[in-house]
Amino acid sequence: MKKWIALCAISLTASLAQAQTSESKEQLSTPTQTRLVTQGFTVSVNKEFSDFKIKGISSFNGSSIEFKEKADNRFGVKLGYSLIKVQKLGADIHLGYSQYEVDNTDIYSVTAAGNLNYGFNEVIYGYGGLNLSQIRIKDLEDLLPEKEYKVGAGIQLGLGAQMTENFSGILGYRLTQSSIDAKFGGFKTGEIEMSFSGLELGLIGTF
């Protein structure tokens, strides 16, 4: 009887040890799930507090005229996709459209941008990246019948806060710029450089 009890005890101990070993291996082989701040398609409305700068440069003698004025950002919207991870690098991309009024002149821009982002925790994150923009001035459509619009590069960076599962807010700095080649008879007569720079507030919905 004692031998039988001893054999049962040894058998149970061995089975328990084997089960614990298998469980430990399973836990080691299971990858740690990445925590997310947010992920999905995004729609955002934005308000900029920016300065508009325009500079005209003559191709003949290099003379230039520069003008700088506060811009009234009347409307701004972006569509994109965002992946923000907690304590890891993520990325987001978007396509944006903005309307401005500067000194009673209508201006609008189209921007494609990409950012790297980093979630400090499940609420606060930072972002920074590059953008490509084309800026158009409505009054120049008639004043410069022969012209070529150029795309310019800019930057954006800032901080965001994930307020709910689907909504976050951002506060950042954005610079967008582009240019126009003025032409006459097919020849370049000058260049007009344009840029917007300043603070940006945004409300982002992620779905």
* CATH architecture call of the largest domain: Beta Barrel
Q: Count up the helices.
A: 2
Q: Give the number of DSSP strands.
A: 10
| Helix-residue proportion | 10-25%
Instruction: Kindly estimate the percentage of residues that lie in beta strands according to DSSP.
Output: over 45%
Structural class: alpha+beta
Please state how the strands of the largest beta sheet are arranged side by side.
1-3-4-5-6-8-9-10
Separation of termini? 68 Å
- Largest β sheet strand count, sense and barrel closure: 8 strands, antiparallel, barrel
CATH domain fold name of the largest domain:
Porin
The CATH class label of the largest domain is: Mainly Beta
The average pLDDT score comes to 86
Stretches where pLDDT is under 50 for at least 5 consecutive residues are: 1-17, 19-30
Morphology: elongated
**Overall structural domain count:** 2
| C-alpha Rg (nearest Å) | 29 Å
Question: Which series of helices and strands comes N to C?
Answer: HEEEEEEHEEEE
What does this entry look like structurally?
This protein is an alpha+beta fold and 207 residues long. The protein has two domains: 1-30; 36-206, Porin (Beta Barrel). It has helices at residues 2-29, 140-143; strands at 36-58, 64-70, 72-85, 89-102, 105-119, 124-137, 147-150, 152-162, 167-184, 187-206. Strands 1-3-4-5-6-8-9-10 form an eight-stranded antiparallel beta barrel. The chain is elongated and about 65 Å long.
